[in-house]
Design brief:
CATH architecture of the largest domain: 3-Layer(aba) Sandwich
Largest sheet: 6 strands, mixed
Bound molecules: zinc ion
Number of helices: 11
Helix content: 25-40%
CATH superfamily of the largest domain: Peptidoglycan recognition protein-like
Distance between the termini: 32 Å
Order of helices and strands: HEEEHEEHEEHEHHHHHHH
Shape: globular
Oligomer: single chain
Number of domains: 2
Length: 361
Amino acid sequence: MQDIPTPGAAPIARRRFLGLTAATGVGLTLGAGPIGASLASAAAPPTIHPTSSWGAVPPSSAVEMLNQAPKKLFIHHTATGNSTDYSLAHGQALARSIQRDHMNRGWIDSGQQFTLTRGGHALEGRHRSLEALRNGRVHVQGAHCTAQNDVAVGIENEGNYMTVDMRAEHYAVLVDFSTYICSQFGIRAYQIYGHRNFNATDCPGDRLYAMLPRLRSDVAARIGGDPTPPAWPTLRRGDRAERVKALQYLLRSRGATIEVDGDFGAATEAAVRDFQGRTKASSDGVAGSQTWNQLAWYLTRGASGEAVKAVQNQLVANGISVAVDGAFGPGTETGVKTFQNRVSLTADGIVDPRTLSRLLA
Ligand SMILES: [Zn+2]
């Protein structure tokens, strides 16, 4: 289900992970060129029906093409009926209906980049999304998850999966489609999420949400990597710890004006609530997985600011000596690699959500 397209909190270091794709990419393109032996089981990508094939109207203004690949893949459900019409014609009508609904909300085009029907038909949603996918190094900014639209590509799955399971035929294509999207953009399998991991919503439904560990595993079986998503601490009022400082630094990086004292008091709670409100996360004042998912970003050498201090302070808390100066230089990079080696993560010196979560453990 869609959410309003507010960019939300300004992403820190938004331009700092240009070029990261090459480092994190799996180094192959399904359906084009040689495929390594490890990919022997990878299925061909599904046919993706472009906007021109289903009678899309032009966007009301130009879609925004960002010069960076998305880092995350979000799974949605349309919360529409569980149709038994599995024809392409039905899917085309659904795509038109979604676009009409979204443009009636004042959006420029369909909110999601892609649509997948119960019949297993994959369709382009927002214009130019197929072009971006083929390219693999750019991203069409969508409108499917508040505060994540700069970094997340989304698939709307036809149906309502609160109490009903996705059809096996539909799921099989979802695996193929997700594998192709992750391969093209260099998205790691662990970065496949449900909409509810970021916003206060039921989407993609309880039953489909429960399928996501399997989806991550099925995709990882084809593209490699550990499919385990980040596990975040839960911090609440009254907590006193070094990792409360990390939370406070991260909140400051998103505009909060709180002190960094490691004491989760009233001011920190208010700042968490404010951040949750701005990112459309559940607004309970408790820093749980939704809040951390929204706070986590990609930090690499050259980054600077409060979020870097969060990382540096946690390195120190883990016994790795670095200056807590907010400048991600060679010393911090070495410290990050040392930590990654210690906890058996790929020692690439990049603080992605999983590395951050391990620093907080
Ligand atoms: Zn959704």
